[in-house]
Amino acid sequence: MRKITEEDAIGLLRKYSGSDKLFEKVLNHVKAVQRVALRIASKCKNVDMYKIRIGSLLHDIGRFSCPPSKDKVRHGLVGAEILKKEGLDDIANIAERHVGVGIRKEDISKQGLDLPNRDFVPETKEEKIITHADNLIFDDKEGSFEDVITRFRNELGESFVERVKSLKKEIDEMERE
What distance separates the 2 farthest-apart alpha carbons in the chain? Predict the structure, then answer.
């Protein structure tokens, strides 16, 4: 697998951004996610810190093609496609699986989402940490876990709140290992 530096990752964001304004907005967001993900990962054993550093910077590279709108859930899939094209297959799953608390097949059919009919759910420690860190970031500011609960409750309902709580519990357990 190809390894890149943080500078290279930021260069990829710029390459796919299309505009300075959108680049700056996404860059500020992913750097905030990176700070939280690194903080969480530093408390966990057996975590690939390279994947945390680079994956957190590149998790939203698909945003440039899928800005917040009806297609916003596709940005993970689009990001994974970009990262694979760039030879970063080991980071691609982070982008693909980080949306919300992961998207399940049943979510796709229930919500009529424009995604292939398969699970897009974080599986590895690194994917889960970045997903959780992303949920804690509102634009480029860290919110509380209660803020996350409120957002998911308002936007998606109680079943998603339970999934957010479950992911948080997994993160807490990783920190105690």
Answer: 43
- Domain containing 152 equals 6-176
- Tell me whether residue 19 is in a domain: yes
| CATH number where 72 lies | 1.10.3210
Instruction: List % helix, strand, coil for the chain (3-state, nearest 5).
Output: 70, 5, 30
pLDDT in tens, 124-163: 999 999 999 999 999 999 999 999 999 999 988 888 899 9
Q: What's CA 158's distance to the chain center, in Å?
A: 21
Q: Which of 55, 85, 51, 81 is nearest to 66 (CA)?
A: 81
- What is the rounded distance in angstroms from the CA atom of residue 101 to the CA atom of residue 114? 17
Output the pTM of the full model. 0.94
In a domain, 1, yes or no: no
**Count of domains observed in the chain:** 1
